[in-house]
Amino acid sequence: MAEIRSTLDIIMEKAKNLTVTEEDKKEFAEKEVQGRVQGFFQKYMDGILSTEQLKKEMASFDNDLKPVAEKELLAACLRTMTVEGDNQPSFEILDQLLACDIEPILDLIDEFQKQQNIERSKRSADLIQTLRKWGVSGSAVIPNLSADTAWRDFISNMQERFQERLKGLRYKVSGGRTLNWD
Prior knowledge:
By secondary structure, this protein is an all-alpha fold. The chain has one domain. Helix content is 67%, strand content 0%. It has seven helices and no strands. The longest helix is centred in the middle third of the chain and has 31 residues, at 103-133. The protein is elongated, with a radius of gyration of 25 Å.
């Protein structure tokens, strides 16, 4: 009668001939660092970790893995930036932990916010005209742009364009460090 083998036995039999190269080990270590940094970053953004605690966590990496950790933290900061949102936590990381030049980002945000303000005024005026046609007017009439699908589409498109331009700045902001950008 044939012996019934467990899945573990089959896996162990196939794995005994596998070898892990130094390059594989390095890649595994880098993936682990990236995951840890993403976890630290999320905790920081959620207010669970302070800037000082994040500094300590980042300092805990071995010297050969610090550049990987810094690249991942830099990429995480830039990925979460928005034209409309509060970017202050990311700016604190960029400035205090990574010693990045944040001026190009501030200039880019300013440029996009100016565009947004111009378009906001135009869209509000258009909506007020539409409401007047429907017989709704007066000084208390304020269009709700957040409920307007055309405005939400515009903001979504603007955020995509902002992220593309931000990607173009990553080398300048990082002081010459190259980034893994997802």
